[in-house]
Amino acid sequence: MRRALLVLLALPAHGLAQTTVPSSGAVTPDTTDSTTINIAQCTGTQNAVRGSADALSLTLNWTAVAKDSVTVPVSGDLFRVYAANQQPAAGQSTGTSCTQPASTSSTFTVNQVGGDIDLNLTNNGGLTYQGQSEAYKDLVAGAGFTCNSTTSTATLYLCVQWVDSSGGIKGWANGTLSLDLRVPTNAPILAANGVTAGDGTLHVNASGNDPLTVTCKALATGDKTAWSSEGSCGGLTISGLTNNVTYSVVVYGLTSAENPSDASNAEPGTPIPTDDFWQHYHAVGGREQGGCGGPAGAAAILAALSLLALRRRKP
Fold first, then answer.
1. Residues in Cβ contact with 185 at an 8 Å cutoff, skipping those fewer than 6 apart
2. CA separation (Å) from 20 to 72, 214, 273, 274?
3. Are residues 70 and 218 located together in one domain of the fold?
4. 23/132 same-domain check
5. In this structure, what CATH number is given to the domain that contains residue 236?
6. How much is the pTM?
């Protein structure tokens, strides 16, 4: 999915005059996007447990700051987005250069992600700019990370370069994302009595059997498949099921980064119709709508109560 990329420039207060501006800028994900990249986002493949809850692309917001004594943006200026595995080194005057290696003996990896972004000076008086969003997986690849480790965490560094038409650097912005590929070692445990019946629903009580598991989701498979909402492993409900149909139920654990465990052991569950008191009362001839109006009404109520009590005793 491609979305608009919002870019905010910290521009000099003197219009087109040259000036010195603050020495740092910030790159952050949009508030609707995650600051932690999980396995699904790293690979660009939707996770069945999370479904569409994991967006595979993100919108970046940034405030770019200019190098000392640089003029405000002009026609032909561009933005370039970079991803790196370490914090880029300091630039010439202020800000940070996205392409200079850090002062370290370890390997530094940095790559431009996506194409050049035109500032589009005609948009909103030259203060707000539109571009394209970036896929999480492209940023991960740009920083030189892979998605095949299920035990690793890392910091991914973002850098935006503001350049003129000849490639001269005019300003920078910087930020970070977390990469968390850890998965639970142990699947949740679903006891033999962990699935109980409701009307068109199954209530699931599992135990999260791993320190990385913070929430769970349950899946029922039968004449249809249905998921519970994500929540406490011991209090999940699967709705929209067919009464008197037996389903096979499994539970998945999820980490704080939303990486799923393997499925738990499977247990059966069969939703059953559940009648309330007034349904029983009217079924045995009761006509009262909310009270006990006479002997016939009282007798009907007693009969309904008896039937209801007998029904609830049945296993």
1. 210, 212
2. 11, 48, 73, 73
3. no
4. yes
5. 2.60.40.10
6. 0.78
**C-beta of residue 204 within 8 angstroms of C-beta of residue 215:** no
Helices (H), the chain: 39-43, 136-142, 277-283, 295-313
Report if residue 225 sits inside a domain: yes
Is the dihedral angle over the CA atoms 145, 149, 150, 151 positive or is it negative?
A: negative
Under a CB-based contact definition with an 8 Å cutoff, are residues 245 and 272 in contact?
A: no
| Mean per-residue pLDDT over the chain, rounded | 80
- Burial-class residue 260 by CB neighbours within 10 Å (0-12, 13-18, 19+): buried
User: Phi and psi for 136 in degrees, rounded to 5?
Assistant: -55, -45
Helix (H) or strand (E) holding 138: helix 136-142
pLDDT digits (tens, 9 = 90+) for 237-246: 999 999 999 9
Separation of alpha carbons 300 and 273, rounded Å? 22
Predicted confidence band of residue 162 (pLDDT cuts 50, 70, 90): confident
What is the count of structural domains for the chain? 3
Q: What is the pLDDT of residue 8?
A: 45
| CB-CB contact of 120 with 129 (8 Å) | yes
Same domain, 225 and 118: no
CA distance 171 to 217: 46
DSSP 13: T
pLDDT tens profile 5-47: 444 444 433 333 333 444 567 888 888 899 999 999 999 999 9
Instruction: Give dist(CA 95, CA 24) in Å, integer.
Output: 5
In a domain, 1, yes or no: no
The residue count of the chain comes to: 315
Domain that holds residue 214: 189-269
Helix then strand then coil, in percent of the chain rounded to 5, is 15, 35, 50
207 and 76 within one domain: no
Q: What is the pLDDT averaged over residues 170-176?
A: 87
Question: Are 206 and 252 part of one and the same domain?
Answer: yes
CA angle 253, 256, 257 (to 5 degrees): 100
Asked whether residue 198 falls in the same domain as residue 102, the answer is no
Q: What is the mean pLDDT of residues 171-176?
A: 87
